[in-house]
Q: What sequence folds into this?
């Protein structure tokens, strides 16, 4: 620890901290543009100048100056103020004063700091320099004349995203940030450079000129477009969600957000189910809620419970899963499944289907084996965490499954299950080994065997200990873990999702289930679809009950780690659509089996009772493995079929992103060339 | 193919100008040089050789096309050879003004106009160059493709100012007449030996040595020194 005095406040900081970090510890804010705590230190904006006694008699860039024992720092002396004013004057020489037409206006670091350190007028009489705008693809809009060369975007893309496309070319006054040879940023995290940019040089292309930051109502929520459960802030104006930004959550997403989660917002306005529909004479016709419920009740009344089934989808919240489960149980239905893709997952124990090491646990792993997963597409933020670990410690990463270009070197051990054994050598000797299985590993006929084999590898490497749990499942879908926690799997003699779809039931209730192969549902099956988008499930449905998307309901989600998180309602569902649990509650009354909760609190009390994990929101204690008994499945029964690519197109994986024009454009820009190259 | 001298920079997106060759491959002579440069750095640190390799590209272009410049395909070849992202090579190549990113003339006239050269008459050298080549602006190439004029900062030979650097050679003690004569010789393909155009030896005083002309000390001096 180092003790120093800043503006008369004595602080103690860990050795190696910088003066700027020490000032933050003392509660003193130092203005900065280039410094960012999650990026390397550049020291090129010079805004963080401070005065340090007995140091060189000049203003010192605090972001790059190590704090030393007994140092006396002044952050508000005349020298400091003058120096910062000078820096600001230089920055404003070439920065256009176009705040009124700049999207960053109102949330601009330069604007804010110019208020404190900017002169009222400019002494510069020459022409400002102008820089050509760069085309960085469909997500990031550039106005490069506004760039102040802090290089945050370059450092982020190079260090965190691991896709070194951006750089600073030329020098001095001619320096430009860009790709030199025009290309779209090939990173799934590219949207984060918009947040990082302290000025309006990089702004959101889909959000260009849409709204001002102060007009928006801001709601804290969680992301559901992948299973990571990133903390987000939903910015809405009136009935419309206009943008989604990441929030800080060090345990989950740090402060990053994948492009799909950030830019799918326009999908929330399109292809929405805003009223009930009932199929009459083969065609879906608009109906009232009463008519829709009556149609469902009629059909349910004549169906035997063993011929009724329910499947939940990717984006479902725990409350509606519980309501559906309770309703089905009251009807005597055991055909329940949340594993749309046929994942062979056991709900026997929670650590058989969770990311047990924790996402923050990746920061400690010293060898990582990926099985049947491409984390770059399935969970880009988590992938960045693996890259961070690889950068920090050089932890080896092995990949069993389809060869993939990750953002760190991964040893490709093979694309068939037999290669799992080779992973044992990679993990050997690691103190904290991690095995990560994707949906591609379990959604196959021998999925249980793969699960058991992976468990055996983790156990063999010493990864299943009381202080470390190295067995991890990375799900695709935000709704998966919550549904598994609620036991939404087939009961005794119950049918699986695939069996239900293939004619195993006469009445099929789909709660947002769009990943099933709707084409295989026989024409005689009566399909009820409850959800928010007119996607695969709704197209086949006989009755459509319009639900709410994740921005339109107070709901609980469990991320792949098993972390229970609450999303909040930012806007109301469109038209006659309602929150999903309320629909199920109303339907239960129509079916004559009224569910015992009339408000969200009562429902959540039931949730806690159904599984105590729901009583612990947000916080997830780290736990080791206390019972090394493997999950059911014969590790010797591994098949020989290669692991399949589970997400061919990162930008279109769920009803919301499939409805989004921005995602369609990304798909055309990035995924199509990739697919063409693969052929 | 559009001639590089016809357009101003920025008219085309960088790296996509019509005069960019589609591909670039190191020839045998370049490969031999690359091996020498790569051997200087420990394994895994080959990226340190990026500047020498860009020079290899520029020299190969001079050998094969008569114009010493670094095409985008050449930068990409360097990136591939050194296992670097291409943008890192673009950054280096655009930072150093010694790399020409567009085709230049046969003789690259690099005129120093920094203070010492300027005080010693670089303006006259510049004017003579303009007159002899017909070039108006900096960075432009003459219509016949023989000359490109570039303004450079101090080349570190102020003692023999003003300096006119032609390709890799320094011509020192320039004035208008000597510049005209030099350019005529270059045009004929008979470049004179590099060095002082005033005929002095290295940086010795004009007209020969002024001190230490005799081995013996003058009588009396030695006594005073004692």
A:
């Amino acid at each position: 620890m180092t003790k120093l005095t800043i503006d008369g406040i004595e602080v103690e900081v860990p050795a190696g901290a910088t003066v700027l970090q020490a000032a933050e510890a003392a509660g003193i804010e130092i203005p900065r543009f280039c410094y960012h705590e999650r990026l390397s230190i550049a020291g090129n904006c010079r805004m963080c100048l401070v005065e340090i006694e007995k140091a060189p008699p000049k203003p010192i860039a605090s972001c790059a100056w190590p704090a030393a024992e007994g140092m006396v720092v002044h952050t508000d002396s005349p020298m400091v103020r003058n120096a910062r004013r000078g820096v600001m004057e230089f920055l404003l020489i070439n920065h256009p004063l176009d705040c009124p037409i700049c999207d960053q206006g109102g949330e601009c670091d330069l604007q804010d700091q110019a208020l404190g350190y900017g002169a009222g007028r400019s002494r510069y009489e020459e022409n400002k320099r102008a820089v050509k705008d760069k085309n960085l693809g469909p997500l990031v809009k550039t106005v490069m004349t506004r760039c102040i060369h802090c290089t945050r975007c370059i450092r982020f893309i190079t260090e965190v995203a691991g896709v070194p496309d951006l750089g600073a070319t030329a020098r001095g006054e001619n320096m430009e940030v860009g790709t030199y040879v025009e290309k779209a940023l090939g990173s799934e995290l590219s949207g984060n450079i918009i947040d990082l940019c302290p000025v309006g040089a990089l702004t959101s292309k889909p959000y260009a000129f849409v709204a001002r930051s102060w007009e928006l109502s801001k709601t804290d929520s969680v992301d559901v477009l992948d299973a990571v459960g990133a903390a987000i802030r939903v910015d809405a104006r009136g009935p419309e969600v206009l943008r989604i930004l990441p929030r800080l959550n060090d345990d989950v997403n740090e402060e990053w957000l994948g492009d799909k989660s950030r830019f799918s917002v326009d999908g929330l306005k399109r292809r929405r189910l805003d009223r009930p529909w009932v199929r009459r004479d083969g065609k879906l016709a608009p109906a009232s809620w009463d008519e829709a419920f009556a149609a469902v009740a009629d059909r349910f009344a004549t169906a035997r419970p063993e011929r009724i089934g329910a499947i939940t989808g990717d984006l479902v919240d725990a409350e509606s899963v519980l309501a559906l489960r309770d309703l089905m149980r009251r009807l005597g239905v055991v055909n329940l499944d949340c594993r749309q893709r046929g994942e062979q997952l056991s709900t026997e124990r929670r650590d058989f289907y969770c990311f047990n090491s924790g996402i923050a646990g990746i920061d400690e792993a010293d060898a990582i084996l990926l099985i049947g997963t491409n984390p770059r597409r399935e969970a880009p933020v988590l992938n960045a965490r693996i890259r961070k670990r690889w950068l920090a410690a050089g932890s080896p990463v092995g990949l069993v499954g389809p060869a993939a270009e990750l953002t760190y070197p991964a040893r490709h051990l093979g694309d068939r299950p037999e290669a799992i054994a080779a992973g044992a050598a990679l993990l050997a000797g690691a103190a904290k080994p991690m095995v990560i299985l994707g949906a591609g590993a379990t959604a196959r006929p021998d999925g249980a065997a793969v699960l058991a084999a992976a468990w055996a590898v983790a156990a063999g490497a010493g990864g299943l200990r009381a202080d470390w749990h190295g067995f991890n499942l990375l799900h695709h879908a935000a709704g998966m873990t919550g549904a598994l926690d609620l036991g939404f799997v087939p009961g005794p003699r119950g049918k699986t999702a695939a069996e239900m779809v293939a004619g195993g039931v006469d009445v099929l209730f789909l709660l947002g289930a769009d990943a099933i192969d709707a084409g295989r549902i026989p024409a005689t099956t009566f399909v009820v679809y409850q959800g928010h988008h007119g996607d695969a499930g709704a197209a086949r449905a006989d009755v459509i009950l319009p639900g709410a998307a994740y921005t339109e309901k107070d709901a609980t989600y469990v991320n792949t780690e098993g972390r229970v998180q609450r999303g909040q309602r930012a806007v109301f569902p469109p038209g006659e659509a309602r929150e999903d649990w309320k629909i199920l509650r109303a339907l239960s009354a129509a079916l004559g089996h009224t569910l015992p909760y009339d408000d969200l609190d009562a429902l959540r009390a039931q949730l806690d009772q159904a599984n105590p994990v729901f009583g612990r929101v947000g916080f997830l204690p780290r736990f080791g493995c206390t019972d090394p008994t493997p999950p059911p499945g014969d590790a010797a029964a591994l098949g020989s079929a290669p692991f399949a690519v589970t997400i061919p197109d990162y930008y279109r994986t769920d009803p919301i992103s499939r409805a989004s024009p921005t995602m369609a454009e990304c798909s055309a820009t990035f995924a199509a060339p990739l697919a063409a190259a693969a052929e | 193919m559009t001639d590089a001298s016809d357009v101003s920079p920025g008219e085309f997106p960088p790296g996509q100008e019509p005069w960019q060759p589609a591909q670039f491959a190191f020839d045998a002579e370049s490969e031999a040089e690359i091996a020498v440069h790569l051997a200087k750095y420990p394994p895994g640190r080959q990226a340190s050789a990026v500047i020498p390799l860009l020079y290899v590209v520029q020299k190969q272009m001079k050998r094969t096309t008569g114009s010493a410049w670094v095409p985008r395909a050449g930068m990409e070849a360097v990136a591939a050879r050194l296992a670097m992202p291409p943008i890192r090579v673009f950054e280096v190549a655009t930072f150093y003004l010694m790399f020409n990113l567009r085709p230049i003339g046969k003789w690259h006239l690099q005129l120093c106009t920094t203070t010492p050269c300027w005080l010693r008459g670089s303006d006259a050298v510049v004017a003579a160059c303009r007159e002899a080549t017909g070039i108006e602006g900096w960075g432009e190439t003459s219509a016949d493709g023989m000359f490109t004029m570039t303004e450079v900062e101090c080349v570190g030979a102020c003692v023999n100012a003003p300096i006119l650097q032609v390709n890799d050679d320094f011509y020192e003690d320039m004035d208008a007449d000597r510049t005209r004569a030099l350019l005529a010789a270059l045009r004929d393909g008979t470049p004179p030996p590099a060095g002082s155009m005033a005929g002095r030896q290295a940086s010795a005083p004009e007209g020969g040595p002024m001190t230490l002309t005799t081995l013996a000390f003058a009588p009396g001096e030695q006594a005073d020194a004692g």
Notes: Chain A touches chain B through 13 residues (CB under 8 Å). Chain A has 20 helices and 28 strands.
